[in-house]
Amino acid sequence: MPSPIIRPLRPDERAAWDPLWQGYLTFYGATVAPEVTDLTFARLHDASEPMHALVAERDGAVIGLVHYIFHRSTWTAGPYCYLQDLFTAQAARGQGVGRALIEAVYAAAREAGASRVYWLTQEANVTARALYDTLADRPGFIQYRKVL
């Protein structure tokens, strides 16, 4: 299987992005209002936003996505990079797509002067965690959240 091409999501690729985005939301049992999805897609293409999107492409088809956000930190001069969303189409799983997308975020973060890339996943997501354990350290922090 050839390695996927990792590249920025283009503004004309909404139809290719939507099924992956909806698949990601479904995987986590989440829903997002259509207007928020519209806003998210627009933000991913707004140069003034710290949000970015890369896709994995193979044989002309978009088979994976990653969204990441740069933000300031009180601990470093440069930014941190939060890898917010990562999803691979079911038929492309186990073929190195997720790894390639994460490594592309690492490269983008280095280029931006970020000192770290970090992300969250559910404890029960054992398949993804098996990959993540080969790519990053788990620092032992626990997330607390209050929905407002």
UniProtKB/TrEMBL annotation:
InterPro entries xref list: Acyl_CoA_acyltransferase (IPR016181), Diverse_Substrate_AcTransf (IPR051016), GNAT_dom (IPR000182)
Species of the source: Methylobacterium ajmalii
Classification of source organism: Bacteria, Pseudomonadati, Pseudomonadota, Alphaproteobacteria, Hyphomicrobiales
Domain of life of the organism encoding this protein: Bacteria
Protein name: GNAT family N-acetyltransferase
Keyword annotations of the record: Acyltransferase, Transferase
Boundaries of every N-acetyltransferase domain copy: 4-148
CDD domains registered for this protein in UniProt: NAT_SF (cd04301)
Signal sequence annotation: none
